[in-house]
Amino acid sequence: MTELLRRICVGTVTRNRPIMLQVLLASYAKMAIPANTQLHFVIVENNSFPTLTEIIERFRTSVPNCSVQYEVESRLGIAYVRNRVLDIAISSGHDLLTFADDDETVEPDWLVELLAERDASNLDIVGGPVRPAPVAGVSLWQRMIWNALKNMAEKGECSACACRSKGEAGKLWLATNNWMGNLNFFRSSGLRFDEALALNGGEDWRLYRETKKIGANTGWAPKAIVYDHIPKERLTLAYQFKRSRDHCAIETRTKLATQRVYTLYRIPGSIAARLLKMIIQLIIAPVTPGESLVKSAAYLGSITGMLQAFTNIQSPHYQTITGA
C-alpha cells in the first residue's frame, strides 16, 4: 500500500531584502526533501506591488519537483504577511508549515531534521538553533559585537540542548526564525499572529504564548540549523538597545492590558534586577568587553522599554529594514 504524501508548506515572508532573499532561496534549492513529502514554497512580499518576479522565477526553475507560489501583501506589518502564509497553507490543505527568515540560510538537512523531531514526539510546534553566519569586511568594533552575539548564541543553544536532554524542551521559547507548525493544530485552535502589533514585531512570541496556554506540545530539534546573516547595521550597541527596548515595550504593554495589577507589582523588581545585571556586566567589561557591552545595552533597552510601555511612544521595529 502506497504511503500518502505529506504536504509541507515552506513559508517565507520578505520586505526590501532582494539580495538576502536570493541567498535564502538558494539554500532552499539545495535542501534535502524528506521521504514521502511534497513541498510547496510560499513567498509573500510585504509591499504595495510585486518587485521579486524575476527572482521567484529563477527560484522556480531551481526546484522543478516543487511548487512555488508568490503573493504580495500590501498591508504593512509582519503579522499580516505571516498570517497570509498561514492562511494559504491551511486553505490549501497542507499538513505542516515552516518559517525561516529572509536574512537566513538553512542547512541542507534542515527540513529533514525538523520533521524527524516533530514526528518523534508528535509535536505541534518545533524549533531549532539559529547561529550567526560568518561576516567579512567589518571593523574591529563590529567584529567584537559579532563575536559577542556568536558566544551568546552558542550558550543559548547549549542550554536548549541540555533542556531537551532532561525532557524539558517544551519549556523553550520558539520564534519563527526556525520553526515548524502542525497545521491541524492551527486549524482546530484558530490561532493567528496578532495583527494589532502592526509594525512592532513580537508577533511570533505572542502566538507561541497563546499556543502554550491551550496545551501545545512543543519541542526542539538540535540538528535543524539555520544561519542568521547579520547586516553591519545591526552590529552596534544602539541596535541591541533598540531591539531590546522595542521587544520589552510590547511585552509590558501586553501584560498591562491582561494582568495590570500583577504587572504593576512586578515591574519595580524587574527594573531593579535588570539594573543590577547591567552594573555587573559593566564591572566585568574589561574581562569580556564584547559580551558585557552587548548585554548591558540589552538590559538598558529592556528597562527603557518597560518605562516606555506607560507612554504613547511607539517604536515600530519593522518600519526600518536592515540588510538588502
Descriptive tags:
3-stranded mixed β-sheet, 2 domains, 10 helices, 7-stranded mixed β-sheet, 49% helix, alpha/beta, 324 residues
What topology emerges from the helices and strands here?
Elements: E1 6-14, H1 18-29, E2 37-46, H2 53-62, E3 67-73, H3 78-91, E4 96-100, E5 104-106, H4 110-121, E6 125-127, E7 130-132, H5 140-165, E8 178-182, H6 183-189, H7 203-213, E9 218-220, E10 226-228, H8 237-258, H9 260-283, H10 289-308
Parallel strand pairs: 1-2, 1-4, 2-3, 6-9, 7-10
Antiparallel strand pairs: 4-8, 5-10, 6-8
What do you see in this structure?
The protein has 324 residues and is an alpha/beta fold. It is built from 10 helices and 10 strands. The strands form 2 sheets. It has a 7-stranded mixed sheet with strand order 3-2-1-4-8-6-9, with helices on both faces. Strands 5-10-7 form a 3-stranded mixed sheet. α5 (140-165) packs across α10 and α9 (260-283) packs antiparallel against α10 (289-308). The longest helix is centred in the middle third of the chain and has 26 residues, at 140-165. The model has no long low-confidence stretch (mean pLDDT 92). InterPro entries: Glyco_trans_2-like, Nucleotide-diphossugar_trans. Pfam families: Glycos_transf_2 (PF00535).
Number of helical elements: 10
Question: What is Rg?
Answer: 20 Å
Whole-number average pLDDT? 92
The CATH class of the largest domain, by name, is: Alpha Beta
Strand and helix order: EHEHEHEEHEEHEHHEEHHH
Give the helix proportion (percent range): 40-55%
The count of DSSP E runs of length 2 or more, i.e. the number of strands, is 10
| Helix/sheet category | alpha/beta
- Beta-strand content estimate: 15-25%
CATH architecture field of the largest domain: Alpha-Beta Complex
Domain unit count: 2
CATH fold-level name of the largest domain: Spore Coat Polysaccharide Biosynthesis Protein SpsA, Chain A
The low-confidence parts are: none
Strand order of the largest sheet: 3-2-1-4-8-6-9
The CATH superfamily of the largest domain is Spore Coat Polysaccharide Biosynthesis Protein SpsA, Chain A
Please describe the biggest sheet, giving its number of strands, its sense, and whether it closes into a barrel.
7 strands, mixed
**What quaternary form is this?**
single chain
Overall shape: it is globular
In angstroms, what separates the terminal alpha carbons? 48 Å
